[in-house]
């Protein structure tokens, strides 16, 4: 076993103590409570990330489910224009243009989000309707 690869050498002693503890625990209740609180904080962060992903999925579903006529018209128009551009232009040119755009100098970047991203963020999700 490579301890550097598995980061076993950088593990906190409390984490190692938790790993090698017996199953009804032999540690005092304050240590068990600290472990439980750490587990709850990690689970809370995971739940926040999963909730954000679900919100983005609901927005994508509302864009594709044809409920919002304004968003549907813009999306269909965007797909039509993208299909024509991708059909006419060689793939290498498209990859070069995307690469130049992504790697542009910070002086040419804007502080505001892009128009499609701003539009997508403003689409309704179920979390917005829960209030």
Automatic annotation (TrEMBL):
<keyword id="KW-0677">Repeat</keyword>
<feature type="transmembrane region" description="Helical">
    <location>
        <begin position="73"/>
        <end position="103"/>
    </location>
</feature>
<feature type="compositionally biased region" description="Basic and acidic residues">
    <location>
        <begin position="1"/>
        <end position="14"/>
    </location>
</feature>
<keyword id="KW-0812">Transmembrane</keyword>
<feature type="region of interest" description="Disordered">
    <location>
        <begin position="1"/>
        <end position="23"/>
    </location>
</feature>
<feature type="domain" description="Multiple C2">
    <location>
        <begin position="1"/>
        <end position="131"/>
    </location>
</feature>
<keyword id="KW-0472">Membrane</keyword>
<dbReference type="Pfam" id="PF08372">
    <property type="entry name" value="PRT_C"/>
</dbReference>
<protein>
    <submittedName>
        <fullName>FT-interacting protein 3</fullName>
    </submittedName>
</protein>
<dbReference type="InterPro" id="IPR013583">
    <property type="entry name" value="MCTP_C"/>
</dbReference>
<keyword id="KW-1133">Transmembrane helix</keyword>
<dbReference type="InterPro" id="IPR047259">
    <property type="entry name" value="QUIRKY-like"/>
</dbReference>
């Amino acid at each position: 076993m490579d301890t550097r690869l598995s980061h076993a050498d950088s593990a906190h002693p409390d984490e190692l103590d938790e790993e090698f503890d017996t199953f009804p625990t032999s540690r005092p209740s304050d240590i068990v409570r600290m472990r439980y609180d750490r587990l709850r904080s990690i689970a809370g962060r995971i739940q926040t990330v999963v909730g954000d992903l679900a919100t983005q999925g609901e927005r994508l579903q509302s864009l594709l489910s044809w409920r919002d006529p304004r968003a549907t018209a813009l999306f269909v128009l965007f797909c039509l224009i993208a299909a024509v551009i991708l059909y006419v232009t060689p793939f290498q040119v498209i990859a070069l243009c995307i690469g130049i755009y992504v790697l542009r100098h910070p002086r040419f970047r804007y502080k505001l989000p892009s128009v499609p991203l701003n539009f997508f963020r403003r689409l309704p999700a179920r979390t917005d309707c829960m209030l």
